[in-house]
Amino acid sequence: MSELGLKEELRRRLKGRVLLIGAGNTLRGDDAAGPALISLLEGTVDATLLDAGEVPENYFSRILEAQADTVVFLDAADFGAAPGDLAVLEAEDIAGCSLSTHQMPVDLFFRSITRSSRAEIFAIGIQPARIGFGEPMSPEVEESIRELAEVLRGILPPRLTEQL
């Protein structure tokens, strides 16, 4: 997806209270994209940020407590594109691609959140180049998460107060 297309899609979809969930294993190269993006955004945007590591289902109650209108799941996802490419993925898309290294199928996790809240939920997948244990993040994914952080900072209101 082009950067302009992504910006327009996110402008249209990021409504009300926004929860950004970074998922992935920080010890597995590009699988760390979600947590790295959350770290880049910390203290800069008026959204709830959650680094859910590799087991986002453990944060189910915190996700519901956020009472978000929009939930965005940020994760490495193999959707057959070039390393660092970004894609907006719906629950039905996720069933057809490999999303990171999670315990629970992510599409089932999405359906559980949708059934238990009024939030719109979708994912921004980042195509990994490498997810081997102990590998560093690839330059392509590092660049993509920096660019995505800038896009999100341009769309979401700035953080005006300290988060607890």
Biggest beta sheet summary: 6 strands, mixed
The global form is: globular
Q: Report how far the terminal alpha carbons are from each other.
A: 34 Å
Strand segment count: 6
CATH architecture level-2 label = 3-Layer(aba) Sandwich
Helix content: 25-40%
Average pLDDT, rounded to a whole number, is 88
Structural class: alpha/beta
> How many helices?
6
Query: How many structural domains does the protein architecture include?
Result: 1
Describe the protein's architecture and organization.
The chain has 164 residues and is of the alpha/beta class. It has a single domain, classed as 3-Layer(aba) Sandwich (Rossmann fold). Helices cover 35% and strands 21% of the residues. It has six helices and six strands. Strands 1, 2, 3, 4, 5 and 6 form a six-stranded mixed β-sheet that branches. Strand 1, helix 2 and strand 2 (48-53) form a beta-alpha-beta unit. Helix 2 crosses helix 6. The longest helix is centred in the C-terminal third of the chain and has 17 residues, at 139-155. The radius of gyration is 14 Å and the shape is globular. The model has no long low-confidence stretch (mean pLDDT 88).
SSE arrangement:
Elements (H helix, E strand, L loop, with lengths): L2 H11 L4 E6 L9 H9 L6 E6 L6 H6 L4 E9 L7 E4 L1 H4 L3 E2 L6 H11 L3 E7 L12 H17 L9
Keywords:
alpha/beta; 164 residues; 6-stranded mixed sheet; Rossmann fold; 21% strand
Task: Give a short overview.
The protein has 164 residues and is an alpha/beta fold.
